[in-house]
Amino acid sequence: MSKLYAGLAAAAVVGMVGGLFAYGQLAKPDDAFAQCRGGVVGGDIGGPFTLQNAAGATVTDKDVITKPSLVYFGYTFCPDVCPLDNARNAEAIDILEERGFDVTPVFITVDPARDTPDVVGDFAANLHPKMIGLTGTEEQIKAASQAYKTYYRKQDGDDPDYYLVDHSTFTYLVLPETGFVDFFKRDETAEQIADRTACFLSQ
Fold it and tell me: Which of 108, 150, 154 is nearest to 6 (CA)?
């Protein structure tokens, strides 16, 4: 039942955030990536962040986004959505590697109370050897989430250790020199993500 509820909640959040997210501004004629984009991207998305890696060291976006990266915001206690999405992203990374592209999967928690550096490190390592797991203080997570225009909210509950977190489920393609260039929704496959990412990296 909890998995069903989590899935429905996530779907509702995706629908809500998707409607508000990024379809407000037409691509400019001089957009070098115009033919690669899956939709019209509007708004100022992405930017600097300061978080903690699996070793507990403080890192910034400059330390993390050193290669083209697929960035996802979620949490390790997520019963189904986050593991499935990140497994799909990991598959896309492998497809891209087979095509000669070196891309890094990045997982940023929105549940810092439970997702310690060790926890996000184990979660990331279990999904892909190249995946980077990041956590931080509540303030650091909030700032990173706001930079990427993501949504998350802890559900109310009596048990302080067992609770679900509603959150948006976009995957962001971020390039080291360019920053955010596009996003992928839950219904896109690993092959589709790899195809569009390869398009950006071939420009």
Answer: 154
Q: What are phi and psi for residue 18, nearest 5 degrees?
A: -60, -35
**Whole-angstrom distance, CA of residue 177 vs CA of residue 200:** 13
Taking the model in full, what pTM does it have?
Answer: 0.85
Number of helices followed by number of strands (H, E) in the chain? 6, 9
Domains of the chain: 2-201 (3.40.30.10)
> Do residues 50 and 145 touch, judged by C-beta distance below 8 A?
no
Q: How far apart are the first and last CA of the chain?
A: 46
Calpha distance 95→117 (Å, rounded): 28
56: nearest Cα among 131, 115, 123, 13: 115
- pLDDT tens for the chain, 203 residues: list them: 444 444 444 444 444 444 434 433 334 556 778 889 876 665 689 999 999 999 999 999 999 999 999 999 999 999 999 999 999 999 999 999 999 999 999 999 999 999 999 999 999 999 999 999 999 999 999 999 999 999 999 998 778 788 999 999 999 999 999 999 999 999 999 999 999 999 999 98
| CA atoms within a 13 Å half-sphere pointing along the CA-CB vector of 137 | 5
Report how far residue 196's alpha carbon sits from residue 168's, in angstroms, rounded to the nearest whole number.
21
- Give backbone dihedrals phi and psi of 26, rounded to 5 degrees, phi first: -70, 145
* Exposure class string for 93-112: b at 16+ Cβ within 10 A, else e: bebbeeeebebbbbbbbbbb
